[in-house]
C-alpha cells in the first residue's frame, strides 16, 4: 500500500544515487506539468481524499432532512468513510513506527560494520 511504497521510496532515495538522480531529473523535466509536485506528493493524494470525502458527507448529512430518501444512505456512507479513515490512520501509525525501527536498525548495522 501507500506506506510500503513510501518506505521503499525513502529508502531508495537515501541509498540509491541513480534513483535519486532519476527523481531529480524527472522533477526538473516535468516541473511545469506536475505543478512542482514530487513523487511523495503523488503518493499521498489518495490518502488526502479520505478526509475530504468525510467532510463532504458530514456536510451533506447536515443539510439533508431525515425524511429525504438519501438520508439513510448518507448516514451509512459517512459511517463507512469514518471506518476507512480510522483504518488508514492506524496503518499510517504502524508504518511510521516501522520506519523508525528500520532507521534505528540501519544505524545499529552501520555502527557494527565500521566498529
Q: Number of DSSP strands?
A: 0
Coarse morphology: elongated
Helix content: over 70%
**Main beta sheet strand tally, sense and closure:** none
Given the structure, what is the number of helices? 4
N-to-C SSE series?
HHHH
How far apart the termini lie comes to 36 Å
> Which structural class matches the secondary elements?
mainly alpha
Q: Return Rg in Å.
A: 21 Å
Mean pLDDT: 83
Helix and strand arrangement:
Blueprint: H1 2-15, H2 17-29, H3 39-62, H4 71-114
Helix pairs in contact: 1-2, 1-3, 3-4
Task: Walk me through this protein's architecture.
With 115 residues, the chain is an all-alpha fold. The protein contains four helices and no strands. The protein has helices at 2-15, 17-29, 39-62, 71-114. The mean pLDDT is 83.
Summarize the structure.
The protein is mainly alpha-helical and 115 residues long.
Amino acid at each position: 500500500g501507500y506506506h510500503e511504497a513510501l518506505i521503499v521510496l525513502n529508502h531508495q532515495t537515501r541509498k540509491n544515487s541513480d534513483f535519486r538522480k532519476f527523481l531529480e531529473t524527472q522533477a526538473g523535466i516535468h516541473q511545469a506539468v506536475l505543478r512542482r509536485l514530487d513523487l511523495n506528493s503523488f503518493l499521498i493524494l489518495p490518502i488526502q481524499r479520505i478526509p475530504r470525502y468525510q467532510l463532504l458527507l458530514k456536510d451533506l448529512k447536515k443539510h439533508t432532512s431525515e425524511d429525504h430518501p438519501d438520508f439513510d444512505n448518507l448516514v451509512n456512507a459517512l459511517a463507512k468513510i469514518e471506518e476507512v479513515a480510522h483504518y488508514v490512520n492506524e496503518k499510517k501509525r504502524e508504518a511510521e513506527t516501522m520506519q523508525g525501527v528500520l532507521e534505528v536498525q540501519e544505524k545499529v548495522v552501520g555502527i557494527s560494520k565500521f566498529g
